[in-house]
Amino acid sequence: AGAANVLSQHMPNEFVVNCTGHELKGISALYEYIDAKLANVIPGAVVLGGWPALPWGQRGMGPRPASLDAILEAGVTQETLDLIIDQCFSLDSVSPPQYMVKGPLRPVVQAAFASLVMYFEERLHAGEMRPVQIKLKDAVVKAQATCAANVETTLMMWGAAVRRKFDVDNISLTAKAGDTGMAQVVQAIKNVAASVSNLSTQVEARERGCDERYL
Q1: Residue 85: CB atoms within 10 Å
Q2: Would the pTM of this model clear 0.85, i.e. be above it?
Q3: Which of 64, 92, 179, 196 reaches 20 to 30 Å from 51, CA-CA?
Q4: What pLDDT, in 10s, does the model give residues 19-72?
Q5: How many helices (H) and strands (E) does the chain have?
Q6: Nearest residue to 19 via CA among 29, 32, 10, 30
Q7: DSSP classification of residue 34
Q8: CA distances (Å), 138 to each of 33, 88, 188, in order?
Q9: Spatial separation of the C-alpha atoms in residues 67 and 143, rounded to whole Å
Q10: What was the pLDDT predicted at 163?
């Protein structure tokens, strides 16, 4: 009931029922023909995920997950990331094939790993999820992405890059793009932010490379 009340404050009931599982077919035969459940569930998913609500009565894009793109732009290869991911999540030859490289659910695994990296520094300072943090650090070292002495610094650098891209990808939600004239402004900000993020990631990667050569 609590979630239903929260949803009803931010959207018409025609959207709410797609999240609660109720039916409106008893109200009108019209609902026998409407089958846009995926599109209609997005407004509710946005609100329940803690994001600002979409404009009243409007559909829109939901939040985009954390991505590995920023780490790849820092010079880490996809092969290395795949090794780290498999090690981190203990995926091997007996694991479900859909989670493995080229499996249909591999993007879900990649997004989960990107989220772990994005929150690494925050959890490190808070002393939270220590077994997960240790597993993540061990996976990075075993894949030879960095040495043990630099693993925390490396993960924090990756996490900052992932966070920057995550914020840019979801700026349409946080900036209330539905306001008059805001859509164009949001797109312009996204373009500039993406360029700055890419440049910052490249500079950090080069600085790290220089530092490691002199260790």
Answers
A1: 23
A2: no
A3: 196
A4: 776 777 777 766 666 666 778 888 888 888 888 888 888 888 888 999 999 999
A5: 11, 0
A6: 10
A7: -
A8: 53, 8, 40
A9: 19
A10: 94
